[in-house]
Amino acid sequence: MKILWLYAHPEPRSLNGYLRTRGIAEATALGHEVIRSDLHAMGWNPVVSAADGTGGTERFLVGDAGHTAFRAGRLPPDVTAEQEKLSAADALVVQFPLWWYGPPAILKGWFDRVLVKGFGYGTGSRYGAGALAGKRALTVVTAGARASSMAPRGIHGSIDQILWPLLHGTYFYTGMAALPPLLVGSADRATEADADAAVAALRARLRGLETEEPIPFRAESSGDYDDELRLRPGVAPGASGLEAHLSE
């Protein structure tokens, strides 16, 4: 497989940096080709602006302007380069520290600028049938909190729910198969043994990258949703939380 390793951490000497180095080495040893995007090292600009669209003086409607610029081949070169990397990849590994229950701003800005309408999604082509269908996405996330506190009954909430906007609203929305995330807890207090255990867990996930079952989100085209995109009454009756959007 060809993997785009999308990495967002400002400190290369961090546990994240160690995992990235070892993870890329493991993926290469498994025979995968790895394309790299180290957002901090690249000096990635995460801010969407009119320069990403029309660049003119008319009102800047972000979605429409990005779509128009994409179709006309007028997106900025840094955005186009990342789109080319993602287009060439069979799988996406997204690695970051969890800050305030989400990805760092620099990574959020990569999704904002790269996954424009026409490239990342289109009308009627979402949630399992997006433009990036056929690709697989693995999230590698570190947290200062203990992993046990991000379990289903943990005080912080389940990591799957914390990352729902990324797993469901970004990966699955654009058609990618979202794999269960790999959480490495207590990152700031990790010992050498902890780091080695995290590498072993990452190695195992990379070995299963091609075959692991993705999170079973319900596709928009599954028939489970009505014309208002609400679950039909007979689907997951009585359920109203996020889990209702997982197939049984």
UniProtKB/TrEMBL annotation:
Residues 1-205 form the Flavodoxin-like fold domain. SUPFAM superfamilies: Flavoproteins (SSF52218). Residues 215-248 are annotated as: Disordered. Keywords: Oxidoreductase. InterPro entries: Flavodoxin_fold, Flavoprotein-like_sf, NAD(P)H_dehydrogenase_qn. Coiled coil: none annotated. Signal peptide: none annotated. Pfam families: Flavodoxin_2. Belongs to the NAD(P)H dehydrogenase (quinone) family. This is NAD(P)H-dependent oxidoreductase. It comes from Streptomyces spiramenti.
